Amino acid sequence: MVTSEALRIAPLEWSLYYKRGAAEAALFYSHSATQRDFAVARYLLPYWPNLYFQEGRIWIAVGEPDLGFEAWTEALQRSGQNAPGLYGQMFNVIKSDASLLDRWRELGRANKECLLVFLQNAGPFEFQVELQRLLSEDRQLQSLTLDELKILFSAWYQKGDKLALAETLRGRPEWQKIGWRELARSYADYQDYRQAYEIVRQFAPPPEVPQKTPQESTAVLQSRFKLNPTVDAGLALYFAQMREGQINDALMTLGQLTAFPGSPKYLSYLEAELWAQKGQWKEAWQALARFELPNR
């Protein structure tokens, strides 16, 4: 091999041992030769987790998952705070193989941040299994930070039992402050639109809305808006209609304004308030979701 010739010139160059090991693995040479070269590369560069990751990737590619996961275990142990990112890269390598996915799941159990990466990528059944294990070991989830709880509740909504999530959050007010978006969405998914609306109103800060105090009549402002259909003109008309108690007309005005490209988000908030006044909770929720949960 060319790398063998190069090693005679630079016998302490770790990359040459790694490349020769990779070539030996691809050509199905004896495992002992490949393992020897990988071991020398690791000895010469012991603190680079990616080297262990790449070694594991090669072993898995040639049908040796035991050796691959041994290398990946070392990679995670040496990664420190970068372990979740490396664990996520492993998923991209093995995501199409169910048997390797199960081993990947077990590999991440010891690290709660890796476990969260798993939960974000798991199927519904695997998610439920690991969630129940987590809750059996830490019922209060005290081992998770606020940011990690946000990730968990988001994954729970996407992958798990939404009704169970809603019941869990409903029973833990301190968790509602973290997972209120998922709680509201869960209520809406079960068509409890009033609860969904009220949860968002409880936790989402209201927007800053430009205040208009038009002196002209609604008829004058209506004509002005037709001639010059801008957000400012429409907002002046909306405030005048609200002053006169013309809720339905105000809703029509907001509907026109929200159809403008790039219209301010607060318009959907105002629309939601009006639908709530009318007791039409589905419409109120849909408008409020456009304001606070645009990625739904």
Summary, kept brief:
The chain is mostly helical. The protein contains 18 helices and no strands. The model has no long low-confidence stretch (mean pLDDT 88).
CATH structural fold name of the domain at 218-292: Serine Threonine Protein Phosphatase 5, Tetratricopeptide repeat
Q: What is the level-2 CATH architecture name of the domain at 218-292?
A: Alpha Horseshoe
Structural class: mainly alpha
Give the helix proportion (percent range).
over 70%
Rg of Cα set:
29 Å
* Full CATH superfamily name of the domain at 218-292: Tetratricopeptide repeat domain
Largest sheet: none
Walk me through this protein's architecture.
By secondary structure, this protein is an all-alpha fold. It has a domain of 75 residues: Tetratricopeptide repeat domain (Serine Threonine Protein Phosphatase 5, Tetratricopeptide repeat, Alpha Horseshoe), CATH 1.25.40. Helices cover 74% and strands 0% of the residues. It has 18 helices and no strands. Helix 4 runs parallel beside helix 6, helix 5 runs parallel beside helix 7 and helix 6 runs antiparallel to helix 7. The radius of gyration is 29 Å and the shape is elongated. The chain starts with a helix and ends with a helix. The relative contact order is 0.05. The model has no long low-confidence stretch (mean pLDDT 88).
